[in-house]
Design a protein that fits this description.
It is built from 15 helices and 9 strands. The protein is 44% helix and 17% strand. With 390 residues, the chain is an alpha+beta fold.
Amino acid sequence: MAAVNVLYNVGARDESPDKTGFAHLFEHLMFGGSANIPDFDDPIQRAGGENNAFTNNDLTNFYDIVPADNIETVFWLESDRMLHLKIDEKVLEVQRKVVVEEFKETCLNQPYGDVWHHLADLAYQVHPYRWPTIGKIPEHVEEATLQDVQDFYQRYYRPNNAILTVAGNVTVEQVRALSEKWFGDIPAGPVPKRELPAEPPQNRMQQRVRHSKVPVDALYLAFHVPARYEADYYAVDILSDLLCNGRSSRLYRRLLKERQLFTQIDAYITGSIDPGLLIVEGQLSTGVSIEQAEAAIWEELEVIKNEPILESELQKLKNKVESTLVFSEANVLNKVINLAYFELLGDADLINQEVLEYRRLNTADIQRVARKILTRENCSELYYLAERDA
């Protein structure tokens, strides 16, 4: 097998505040056909493969996996939609309806579905992370004109704004020849100039209360954390695992199993390229007040900041991270996606350095970032409360 990945250096952070959701819309439009290929799925399937895509705040990523003998089919498909994507009123209307329906289904009609709209809006004041990938409101996609969409395509979906990675049963010479054949004559576009406003340090707690028809009350705490390329990113990642990753983690063991304050609890980082967030979230047990639940979380955060962290606890987390990284590289699809991402960060060789960065961490590193990050003034808090029957 062989995997081919095309990463476009465009995500939700590149959108205008009054025209959001475009990067996600293009994830769908890129499967809508091109000048020579009316249906992208059919050629891939006939070649014995499969393809898909994903979009986030930072990038848009398309990937294909096929038997290695059929890899040229993928180069043909990806190059044709880079050069000759079909964008007309009919195609736009079809994909616009799909995206708007997805917005309604996942954000408006699903319990807690609009959480990220509230958290991002609370935590970010100027940076475009303040809206989610799917967009601020469905009207931005509903009202997108054909010219808006064509301009976005011409600006971002060019070879000089893309990263191509290939892995599997292939040779460098074969990939170089195919790349020249299928992408070599596609003209470059102007290099998009990204000048994003830096989010200023947060110096007071942001709070919001949301009432909705959800099963139980839920609590969300969001803390600003370093960017993906900063050295402290790795310590923050381990810190989130220390808080809640698995049944032996602190918040799960103490607040869910022992004190039974929550029915679900989790902690994770957004992992975004620009400074992101560490999220602590939980759904409350029956009879537990939101204030009681919040106080319990802050108690645990103070423990992590002020009481010694066992070396054995840290080593267990580092082992888990290392095994995850190592096993992910056994899959050719993971390999091309990761290679493209690290190249986007500035150095593809970082894929070989990540394990070392985690190994270097000590308990003092974790406690230092905990004291810096887990503060009330650095926190955005969302109470998501179930509407009570009158």
